[in-house]
Write a structure and sequence with these properties.
alpha/beta, Rossmann fold, 2 domains, four-stranded parallel beta sheet
């Protein structure tokens, strides 16, 4: 008798994630289908991870992203996502497609390439959400929050409202850019997040989008959906779902929101 070894005999999926974050892999492994393996390449570059050329005719990949892509190319992955909400948001309209176009030749013809921005857009539309309530992590500064609202509006998903999570008294006096460095990324609590979303979600929002792949939240998606009676989508959930479906894996997954049962 053999034990479980998490071998990706159905599909191997790659994700580019922030170098010092623990949340993305933990959440993906919690949700992943049997027979699917998750493989991470860590990126330390500032966002966005691919830089627009001066004429905006394309993007140049940051060295960390290019290095990871070259390593992934040897692993025969079914799908790869740039798992970084901030890169899509700050890159703006057209960035996702330009980044996919630059990464695809490196990863090879057999690998489907996507981004967290594309993943969340497809997830929202699949769930019929047109006016999401956008929930953003506390380490997003005012400029990034504004860019997030603009990003989804530019893609036909004007938000019904938004909130930046209040992480509590211990962290409230720190600037957004200091939170992760002071350890908040590893001390996230989901119960206060649940309470804030449930309280703040406007009546005219037809769904919720929790942005930020480093933002711990998948444990509360199912309960939020039951209480709000609307689809609740998170960055990691959307990227995993999109990669699984792109790889031809359609097994419904319970406990992490209705998206993973579509």
């Amino acid at each position: 008798m053999t034990g479980r070894d998490n071998w990706g005999w159905r599909a191997r999926i790659g994700m580019f994630i922030v170098g010092n974050e623990a949340v993305p892999e933990a959440e993906w492994w919690a949700m992943a289908s049997a027979g699917v393996s998750i493989h991470a390449a860590r990126v330390t570059a500032r966002a966005p991870w691919a830089r627009w050329r001066e004429d905006r005719g394309g993007v140049d990949l940051e060295e960390d992203l290019l290095r990871g892509a070259r390593q992934f190319a040897a692993m025969r992955l079914a799908a790869v996502t740039v798992g970084h909400s901030s890169s899509s948001i700050l890159g703006g309209k057209g960035w996702d497609a330009a980044t996919v176009a630059s990464l695809s030749p490196v990863l090879g013809a057999g690998t489907i390439v996507t981004t967290n921005g594309l993943d969340t857009q497809v997830a929202l539309r699949t769930c019929g959400v047109k006016r999401p309530f956008l929930v953003l992590p506390p380490w997003f500064n005012d400029d990034t929050v504004a860019a997030g609202l603009r990003y989804y509006a530019d893609h036909g998903l004007a938000t019904a409202g938004h909130m930046r999570y209040d992480p509590g008294r211990k962290w409230r006096d720190l600037a957004p850019g200091e939170l992760v460095g002071q350890g908040m990324g590893l001390e996230q609590e989901v119960e206060p997040l649940y309470a804030q979303i449930r309280s703040a979600c406007p009546a005219d929002a037809d769904g919720v989008l929790i942005a930020g792949t480093g933002f711990r939240c998948v444990a509360i998606l199912e309960t939020l959906e039951q209480d709000l009676k609307r689809p609740v989508i998170s960055a990691n959930q959307a990227s995993l779902w999109h990669c699984l479906r792109s790889a031809g894996v359609h097994t419904p997954i319970s406990g992490y929101g209705s998206l993973l049962r579509i």
